[in-house]
Amino acid sequence: MNITNTPFEDLVVLEPRIFEDERGFFFESYNNETLLKSGLRTVFVQDNQSHSQQWVIRGLHFQHPPFEQTKLVRVLNGVIQDVVVDMRKDQPTYKKSFSIVLSSENKKQLWVPKGFAHGFLVISEFADVLYKCDEHYHPEAEGGIFYDDKELSIIWQLEGSKVIISSKDLILPLSKDVNYEHVSKNRI
Fold it and tell me: Which of 2, 11, 22, 97 has fewest C-beta within 10 Å?
């Protein structure tokens, strides 16, 4: 597995080694030992999966401390634009966004550490997204940022299309109105 750093501390892209033959393909999508050797330390406790149609935006979501989540995001079917926003006030990348195309074809995964808001846009006709979390979902700790917050300068790959957003995500606050205090570190 190839692990590539991004300009954001602890945010990395994972690319598996793919073995293909006449039967199809095989790859290792998760190996705790490989991640540990790379300094990525966590214990995943929950897997979440979504199925969404084209132009759906989910997010930008996070959980407030002490229930912050590290996520490992991948696409089982389709193509998404995966977007994160660094909410860690002590980082030079605070309130900056990172975007990557994840697909069932490129098989890339995004390791999203605690302290980031996360969301995605479905670019293909539909997409099935799977992500591992190192903390259970706690409804009382959920938070988020409005996807089109101009301060964040996110360039969504919409091509003039009309987005589909849940009523819950449409009323998320702007980043300037979010009180988020990152305190957790990845743990083993």
Answer: 22
**pLDDT tens track for 135-149:** 999 999 999 999 999
Q: Which residue range is the domain that position 110 belongs to?
A: 2-177
Please indicate, yes or no, if residue 185 is contained in any of the structural domains.
no
pLDDT digits 0-9 by tens, 94-135? 999 999 999 999 999 999 999 999 999 999 999 999 999 999
Indicate whether 89 belongs to any domain. yes
Among 118, 131, 147, 182, the one annotated catalytic: 131
Which one from 61, 118, 147, 182 is the annotated catalytic residue? 61
Does any domain span residue 33?
yes
Neighbour-count burial of 109, counting CB atoms closer than 10 A to its CB (0-12 exposed, 13-18 middle, 19+ buried):
buried
- Say whether 131 is catalytic: yes
Inside any domain, residue 153: yes
